[in-house]
Specification:
alpha/beta
């Protein structure tokens, strides 16, 4: 039986690294990509087929896809769009540049990559596209406007593609994690310092608390290890007819239900109360 190949973005640590390791152990041919050359070198040393893939660069995306298709004789069973980061900050403090940077990585680069692999999947008559979304693609937390918007956009594009790919045997599934053990908070802290002028913001007192939390080692409530995401990814890859959405962690399941049954004002009160928890 032909070994099925999987391309994964954002494999330097956390969810991406766990997916690469777990799927390789399960027998898949894994192409584990990362943005930084040092991370690619580490992945290669660990035994992965690895090469650079920077979602902010069209040329990097094209080169990565060409590399995969050349190594697999034009076949790619699955793409897992995991690479992303969170830009904290009140919406009124987000510059156009900050919003653009968030969407370049989380939406535009991800969709460009997806569009390049779909023709190969069409040609082979099958494929799986797994989008690593978030609880914040279901509901919005305060001070995460850029990330909320990027994940809502990813969900909308995924839902649209699922309709457009009906009958092709190419399945699009969203995995929606809540808090997962990873470098997400550290990367979010770096983005915060890069784009938010804390000292001149009316939200500076809140930001001081945010930075303290982002710098701290204490995990968020209900945090699960990245293996929880791996478990759902395996279901998508191996189910005959994968579902459109897979929730990971209790908060994601809870808020998916609350969004459907609660009045907006009640839900807003709850979301305001939990926005300080730092959920992904």
């Amino acid at each position: 039986m032909e070994q099925k190949s999987v391309l994964i973005t954002g494999c330097s640590s956390g969810i991406g690294h766990c997916l690469a390791r777990g799927l390789k152990q399960r027998g898949y041919r894994v192409f584990a990509t990362a943005r930084q050359a040092t991370d690619v070198e580490s992945l290669t040393t660990a035994g992965f087929e690895s090469f650079p893939l920077d979602l902010d660069s069209s040329s990097s995306i094209r080169t990565a896809v060409e590399t995969v298709l050349a190594r697999t004789q034009g076949r790619l069973y699955a793409l897992i769009n995991n690479g992303a980061y969170g830009q904290p900050g009140a919406v009124e403090d987000l510059s156009r540049a900050a919003l653009r940077a968030q969407f370049e990585t989380n939406v535009f680069g991800t969709q460009e990559l997806t569009n390049l692999v779909v023709p190969a999947m069409r040609a082979q008559g099958e494929g799986r596209i797994i989008q690593i979304s978030s609880i914040l693609g279901i509901v919005c937390f305060a001070y995460r406007g850029a990330y909320n918007a990027s994940k809502f956009a990813l969900e909308a594009l995924s839902d649209t593609m699922r309709l457009e790919l009906r009958g092709t045997n190419i399945h699009v599934s969203l995995i929606e994690p809540g808090p997962i053990t990873s470098r997400f908070r550290a990367n979010a802290h770096a983005a915060f310092k890069r784009h938010i002028d804390r000292e001149h913001s009316v939200h500076r007192e809140y930001y001081a608390r945010v930075e303290k939390r982002l710098e701290g080692p204490k995990p968020m409530p209900f945090t699960l290890p990245p293996e929880a995401v791996l478990k759902q990814a395996i279901k998508v890859l191996e189910a005959r007819r994968p579902k459109a959405r897979y929730a990971v962690t209790f908060p994601t399941t809870l808020f998916a239900v609350l969004r459907r049954i609660l009045p907006v004002r009640v839900l807003d009160s709850i979301l305001s109360a939990v926005s300080n928890s730092g959920q992904r």
